[in-house]
Write a structure and sequence with these properties.
This protein is an alpha/beta fold and 491 residues long. It has a domain at 51-298: HUPs (Rossmann fold, 3-Layer(aba) Sandwich). It contains 21 helices and 11 strands. The strands form 3 sheets. A 7-stranded mixed β-sheet has the order 3-4-9-8-5-6-7, with helices on both faces. A two-stranded antiparallel ribbon has the order 1-2. The structure holds tryptophan (TRP). Residues 23-36 have a biased composition (Polar residues). Its main location: cytoplasm.
Length: 491
């Protein structure tokens, strides 16, 4: 990771020339938007932890409370994921509606995405996908993963179309490594898939959004390129089942009532607030959402891991040694100045980055509690806490790398090809109302003309996937060349 290019993070920090809106708000307040994330700066000049409760109020979402968690368990028969139990997925819109549908086995799908801004993904990027994998397993529903290569082109001064197309491919590999079921998962890149039924919905969406609305929600101004202003229609239209006739069929009378559940980081909410408004006007089902907090940067709460800052993040390509060094060197500690003081007064797990990471990666609730209690009482020292964290992160990244090494070009092509998906939903309730075509394993595709249905001909799709593959290989070569020219890497 000697020289990460100046790239936009999943949703986060961007170099100045990439910022969508020059309309800077008060820098001392916390500011969470799709392009940057920063905590409030206190009078002492220090960045405070992000106040997620405040975001629930500001954005007008709902808290995931105990009653909802209990209902989740009752309806799905599964204990909520540790991210839900621990307030990491802390907020939602209409999650009850999704549970109602699951109870009746009415169709819905999962939709999430990634802006392919570079090929150095970090562990902050994979958390949503790991959670979505669990959701897919728990609920047995289709998953649509959008790769917004167009977005990452439009919002950057430097990136070329070819570059972002290459990232789509390499990022898809990282995403697939989370372990999704290819029978139930469609991954697409905007450059490859926009057209047909999807494009119809994009334009319907665009017609409902005025420049004033886009400006108010996203902060654009007269100097923003028009692609940025229009982009919300693309990210939004992916929420509609009718954008995917190869999965949900061609009958809009039926598909318009199928909603999606969007697991995403909280900063993506503005897109979907707008989408829910548009859906209403278009008479499409409104998307439901479940919002995640960020994985703190190594430097501490108030910021998030950023792909453009090597020392802020643990990358999926980091070695065990790099992980150890980064945690030991950079992870913000809630420990005391001296050993004596720590033993006497105890540490503060709430601000400790190593502990925060364990809340993401350690499954066992009792063990997590024990660690917290022992750290706060002074029994457990910072070095010891960091060692536990290092061990878990090394295991996480190591097993990720193992799975990633098995993702071949053929596997990516399979996930990204336009084809029907198979799913059953709630196993306790027969799918009586089959508004969605039940597909067989023999690969038969639903009929439909290539002109207006969103289905690319097989050959056109093949060609696009090939193009993407070439772009990814080119980028890889350029990177290797660059690395060779630099002649060494950091310790
Ligand atoms: N805009 C997101 C990003 O930059 C990518 C994205 C598109 C997304 N659709 C999504 C993320 C749905 C979460 C959910 O990363």
């Amino acid at each position: 990771m000697a020289s990460a290019p100046a790239t936009v993070d999943h949703v986060g920090h961007v170099p100045v020339d990439d910022v969508a809106s020059p309309e800077d708000t008060n820098p001392s307040k916390q500011d969470i938007n799709p392009w940057s994330v920063s905590g409030e700066v206190g009078d002492d000049g220090k960045v405070k932890a992000i106040d997620y409760t405040k975001l629930i109020d500001e954005f007008g979402t709902s808290k995931i409370d105990d009653a909802l968690l209990q209902r989740w368990e009752k309806v799905t028969g599964q204990k909520p994921h540790r991210f839900m139990r621990r307030g990491i997925f802390f907020s939602h819109r209409d999650l009850h509606m999704i549970l109602d549908r699951y109870e009746k086995n009415d169709p819905f799908f999962l939709y999430t995405g990634r802006g392919p801004s570079s090929d150095s993904m970090h562990i902050g990027h994979t958390q949503v996908f790991d959670f979505v994998k669990w959701l897919q397993e728990t609920l047995d529903v289709p998953l649509i993963v959008m790769l917004t290569d167009d977005e990452k082109y439009l919002f950057s001064e430097k990136r070329t179309v070819e570059e972002v197309m290459g990232y789509s491919r390499t990022n898809a590999m990282d995403i697939i490594a989370a372990g999704f079921d290819p029978k139930k998962t469609f991954i697409f890149s905007d450059f490859a898939y926009v057209g047909g039924a999807f494009y119809k919905n994009i334009v319907r969406f665009a017609k409902r959004v005025t420049y004033n609305t886009a400006k108010a929600i996203f902060g654009f101004d007269g100097s923003s390129n028009i692609g940025k202003i229009h982009f919300a229609s693309i990210q939004g239209a992916t929420s509609f089942a009718s954008s995917f006739p190869h999965i949900f069929g061609h009958d809009e009378k039926k598909t318009s009532s199928i909603p999606c559940l969007i697991p995403c980081a909280i900063d993506q909410d503005p897109y979907f607030r707008l989408t829910r408004d548009c859906a209403q006007g278009l008479k499409f089902a409104k998307p439901a959402l479940i919002h995640m907090r960020f994985l703190d940067a190594l430097q501490g709460p108030g910021s998030k891991m950023s792909a453009s800052d090597d020392n802020s993040a643990i990358f999926l390509s980091d070695t065990a040694k790099q992980i150890k060094n980064k945690i030991n060197k950079y992870a913000f500690s809630g420990g005391r100045e001296t050993l004596e003081e720590h033993r006497e007064k105890g540490g503060n797990a709430d601000v400790d980055v190593a502990y925060q990471y364990l809340t993401f990666f350690l499954e066992d609730d009792d063990e997590l509690k024990r660690i917290k209690d022992e750290y706060n009482s002074g029994k457990l020292l910072t070095g010891e806490l960091k060692a536990i964290c290092i061990e878990h992160l090394q295991k996480y990244v190591g097993t990720f790398q193992e799975r990633r090494s098995k993702v071949s070009d053929a596997v990516v092509d399979e996930f990204m090809s336009v084809r029907p998906l198979e799913w059953k939903g709630n196993p306790r309730v027969p799918r009586a109302d089959l508004v969605v075509p039940v597909t067989k394993t023999d690969g038969a595709t639903p009929t439909g003309d290539a002109a207006g249905t969103g289905e690319l001909s097989k050959n056109a799709m093949k060609k696009l996937l090939k193009e993407q593959q070439i772009a990814a290989k080119k980028a890889q070569k350029a990177k290797e060349k660059e690395a060779a020219a630099e002649g060494g890497s950091e310790a």
